[in-house]
């Protein structure tokens, strides 16, 4: 049998533990906030920095039709669709 280190656990004072958790978990109820991404440039850039917020519009007509175009920070913003489609066709051949 290999040598195992025996780790001593700290004894918890059961009374203190019960007193601490007898109150239960307290949640803060924060009201929902509405953010208009077309008006708040900083928040729009923060939310769209990793992905397109409206892929349905992007896939159909590109960024020109999107209402968030001004403040969007999406990495695929204004990519040329023709080049992308050519790459996909070459890949599938």
3D architecture notes:
This protein is mainly α and 93 residues long. The protein has a domain at 36-92. It has helices spanning 14-21, 41-47, 55-61, 81-92. It is elongated and about 70 Å long.
Radius of gyration: 27 Å
Query: Main β-sheet: number of strands, strand sense, barrel status?
Result: none
Order of helices and strands: HHHH
The average pLDDT value, as a whole number, equals 78
Structural class: mainly alpha
Q: DSSP strand (E) fraction?
A: under 5%
Give me the count of strands: 0
Low-confidence stretches: none
Number of helices: 4
The outline comes out as elongated
Distance between the terminal alpha carbons, to the nearest Å? 61 Å
Helix content: 25-40%
Q: Summary?
A:
The model has no long low-confidence stretch (mean pLDDT 78).
Topology diagram in text:
Elements: H1 14-21, H2 41-47, H3 55-61, H4 81-92
Essential attributes:
93 residues; mainly alpha; 4 helices; elongated
């Amino acid at each position: 049998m290999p040598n195992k280190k025996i780790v001593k656990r700290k004894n918890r004072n059961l009374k203190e533990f019960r007193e601490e958790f007898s109150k239960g978990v307290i949640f803060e109820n924060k009201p929902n906030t509405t953010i208009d991404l077309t008006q708040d440039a900083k928040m729009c850039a923060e939310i769209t920095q990793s992905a397109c917020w409206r892929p349905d519009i992007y896939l159909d007509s590109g960024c020109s039709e999107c209402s968030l175009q001004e403040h969007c920070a999406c990495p695929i913003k204004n990519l040329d669709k023709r080049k992308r489609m050519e790459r996909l066709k070459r890949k599938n051949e």
